[in-house]
Design goal:
This protein is α/β, with parallel strands linked by helices. It folds into two domains: 123 residues, Rossmann fold (3-Layer(aba) Sandwich); 99 residues, Orthogonal Bundle (Arc Repressor Mutant, subunit A). The chain contains eight helices and twelve strands. α4 packs parallel to α8 and α6 packs across α8. The longest helix is centred in the middle third of the chain and has 22 residues. The radius of gyration is 18 Å and the shape is globular.
């Protein structure tokens, strides 16, 4: 991985934080360590990072709260570190905009593999989208920055939300199989199950208001499609 890959590591454990920093630096990542949520948000505002590794159990603000605040200011990819190997916590992580997660105790090789997978997805998305925008119904989507616009209202999508909506919006009315979406966007080497995709679809439906003239329809057992319901769209 490039030496210019900048990682924001948010971990309050006095032993784990520094050891992860040292390990990541050995693999050519530039790492900045924050030990709590407020410090992480301040750092994310002050400079640019390529990815954030975020512990769930933090003092004062937990990782979910930090992720929600990050999503208000940035589309920075987020990888959660959690000791809670529980489906509900994983789904909550995806609800607040996480891209992936690694459970504790941390398998460092797995952590590096997941980081690189996130960065590959980000690069592929940039190559696919460039500066081109998509228009459907009353919406305009700028995939390069994950910005969804309708009138004066702008919604900042997470990278996963932007990738899926881009895939659907490029061919409105075309049925996209779930397996096709999973492989096209995130690859076979990435952990990402159907239930997690349902969370992203739910969030996208929440972003797409009724006046926008579009909707995402699930065809049970087959896949998803984006329908333009506005006759002017």
């Amino acid at each position: 991985m490039s030496e210019f890959t900048c990682v924001l590591l948010v971990e309050d454990d006095e032993d784990l934080g520094p050891s992860l920093c040292a390990y990541l630096q050995l693999h050519d990542f530039q790492v900045t360590l924050a030990v709590d949520g407020p410090s992480a948000l301040k750092m994310a505002t002050a400079r640019s990072f390529d990815v954030c590794i975020l512990d769930v159990m933090l003092p004062s603000m937990d990782g979910f709260q930090v992720a929600e605040r990050l999503r208000e200011i940035s589309d920075l990819p987020i990888l959660f570190l959690t000791a809670l190997d529980d489906r509900l916590h994983r789904l909550k992580g995806f609800h607040v905009g996480a891209d992936d997660y690694v459970t504790k105790p941390v398998d460092t090789e797995e952590l590096i593999a997941r980081l690189r997978a996130i960065l590959r997805r980000t690069l592929r998305n940039e190559e696919r989208t460039g500066d081109s925008s998509l228009e459907f119904g009353s919406y305009r989507l700028d995939p390069s920055v994950g910005r969804l616009t309708i009138g004066d209202r702008v919604t900042q999508l997470t990278p996963r939300e932007s990738e899926l909506l881009t895939l659907l919006a490029k061919q409105p009315g075309r049925l996209v199989k779930r397996s096709e979406a999973l492989e096209a966007l995130w690859g076979r080497d990435d952990y990402f199950n159907r239930r997690s995709m349902d969370v992203i679809v739910y969030r996208l439906r929440d972003h797409l208001s009724s006046e926008g003239g579009v909707r995402i329809t699930t065809i049970r057992g087959r896949g998803l499609l984006l329908e333009v319901t506005d006759p002017t769209g």
